[in-house]
Automatic annotation (TrEMBL), chain B:
Gene Ontology terms, MF aspect: peroxiredoxin activity
Keywords associated with the record: Oxidoreductase, Peroxidase
Domain of life: Bacteria
InterPro entries (alphabetical): AhpD-like (IPR029032), AhpD_core (IPR004675), AlkhydPrxdase/COmuclacdeCOase (IPR026445), CMD-like (IPR003779)
Residues covered by the Carboxymuconolactone decarboxylase-like domain: 26-102
Protein name per Swiss-Prot or TrEMBL: Alkylhydroperoxidase/carboxymuconolactone decarboxylase family protein
Signal peptide: none
Keyword Lipoprotein: no
Amino acid sequence: MATKSLQAKGKDLAIANKQLEILNGGIFADGELPYFKDNIAKIGHFPLRPKKLEILQINVGYMCNQVCEHCHVDAGPDRKEIMTRETMQQCLEVIKNTGAHTLDLTGGAPEMNPNFRWFVEEAAKAGIKDFIVRSNLTIIRANKKYYDLPDFFKKHNVHVISSMPHYTRGKTDKQRGDGVFDKSIKALQELNERGYGMPGSDLRLDLVYNPSGAYLPGDQMALQADFKKALKEDFNIDFHNLFAITNLPIARFLDYLIASENYEDYMYALVEAYNPSAVANVMCTNTISISWDGWLYDCDFNQMLDLKVASKVKHIKDYNEDILNDRNIIISQHCYGCTAGSGSSCQGTVA
Amino acid sequence: MADSYYDPKDLRKFGKITEWSENLGTKFFDYYGEVFKEGALTAREKSLIALAVAHTEKCPYCIDAYTKDGLQKGITKEEMMEAVHVGAAIKSGAALVHGVQMMNKHDKLSM
Ligand code: SF4
Ligand code: SF4
């Protein structure tokens, strides 16, 4: 289990360029595996272009109470990048005027941003249809000041999406750290008590599953059935949907793949599982990702690789949806993570 | 040429079998895919059976493949180990049950 971010450890892979060198080099540069670009060109999707904007995903900071080994954000308690109120204000302007129907707050642990509650209250007023907060569950039990988060979420009709690596303690704690499982269970029970995740309830509670290692997620529906059965039988927990998400080979997960000598096999597995019919619906085609400091990206992954949108409009202060939507999406080999099998996005499978 | 009989990288090339005999290769992979689909048995149950058989067949490729497949399906290591023991128990039982033959022969030959 990691205790520090790559950035705090001063690791090479904390630098986006180094990650891109790896993703563009090696088995891809020597022709063993095809570039993502070449594969999507075959089906007429290069350059990759956005469709109608549906989701604004705002990353309010890389600070997190956890240091998960697979984290593509390289988040942790030592990360100090946090969205300021001023940037939030600029985001609010955009939220009020956007054509997007979904607002998706992520981090780090978004709740750790000191302006988080103010921001949620203000954003909720904009009346956006689906207001998501990605909560890691343990934050709710991390400190007294967070104990009332389930009530706060309910008050603002927030759609909670939470990560849950497995329905067994062993597998969960291995990926996320000791005690994470018990805390997550407690948090889920509290959300259930407020009506979250209950059958027929409007208070949405979805879970995110991503593999704890160098392998791809199995069938989303089968996993969902296993999770539902086990969580119900063992802990009387209900939730709505399970999203099976593929780990993309960037940041800490890339570091892990290389250190465990799984990188090549993993890339082979991704390329082998490439599904052309997932391409049209990859997340970047309907999402804009905004970083803690207001820069705009095609997705949260490109944000971590520091690949800002290829548009005249690059920052929230200059936001213009029409100009922004008329752009080419920046791709590299990490994109194979979005097109493997049934595809993968922050909302689960796409194909 | 590889200088050992088993190379983990060869598993990636399994699909190439089809290149030298398209008809038979395709038939095999279609059949294989069909077998492992959700049916009267779940895909999860089939994966555990495959893991057990991979061990009794002592096929290193299959062991790698079905350990990974089990992880993908959320199968725990305890479940995987129990499946391996099922395979091993059948293997040892199959050896041991021949002890009856030994006993029969022994008694037949003895006065
Ligand atoms: S995966 Fe989520 S919970 Fe874990 S360190 Fe990253 S942001 Fe935090
Ligand atoms: S990694 Fe980002 S840019 Fe690449 S396909 Fe996925 S969502 Fe699109």
